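User: Protein folding is very new to me. Would you mind checking the protein record under this note? It all follows right here:
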Amino acid sequence: MLSKTKDEYIIEVSNLTKFYGKTKGIENVSFRIKKGEIFGLMGPNGAGKTTTLRSMLNLIQSSSGETKIFSKNLFNLSKIEMSSISYLPGEFETYGNLSGKEYLKYISNLRNAKKNNTNILADRMDLDLNKKIKTLSKGNKQKIGIVMAFMNNPKIAILDEPTSGLDPLKQQEFQNIAKEQNDEGCTILLSSHILHEIEALCERVGIIKDGNIIASEQISELKNKTIKKYEISFEKLPTKSQISKIKGVSNLDINKNIATFTMHGNIDNLIKAISKHVVINLRIIEPDLEEIFLTYY
């Protein structure tokens, strides 16, 4: 991924709020994305991801708040700047009577694009562009959306659940394409409820719950804040009560001479306690993104 210039933010979302009557869609959503970054917006269906993306792009009118892209309000962007932003909606639908080739050519012409990687991307996604879109499966329609998002080498790609309907192999190919586009200078905002996808692509993540951002930071920092799991092999296992008494230990499981447990807080008490015994091996099992996600939910 590209190196980032300090405080060079290409997307700035400030206190974005959307109410549907009295029903909250999102409230005071704020985050910033650096140029050259892949940022993940993570949450289950209904958490507010799509409302956030649509509001920030002014596809639906927000109740309050603002979005700046290229340090400008959306209404002040030039045609060239607008054409360098691609958006893949979560429920991707398009003109069914057109073939994939016709539709993508039409979009590329609208963007007045100088670069076009349509055929290369279609080949990588195993997509037949000669078929009419209305005859395609959901997965193949989604492939057209992915090609549309990246075919003109955008500076910003905003992708809402981009791998919906794709099989695992094509999900992996999407990740490869996204990384390559990022290496070429594309900043990506990725909304997803697929945790391994966020973990594979993103450096930072915003967790959204009930229309509010409840965490926004580096994935590595999120992992450091969560409860870690320890697996310790002893030459002679201490009693279960000895281990249970160590401050911060919970979910203790003993199998032969191996003790597995979770630990919260300072590990100094743990180190002092196990130093009285012969330790053969100590392994810290890092939490994956799913465990972090469940901690917040």
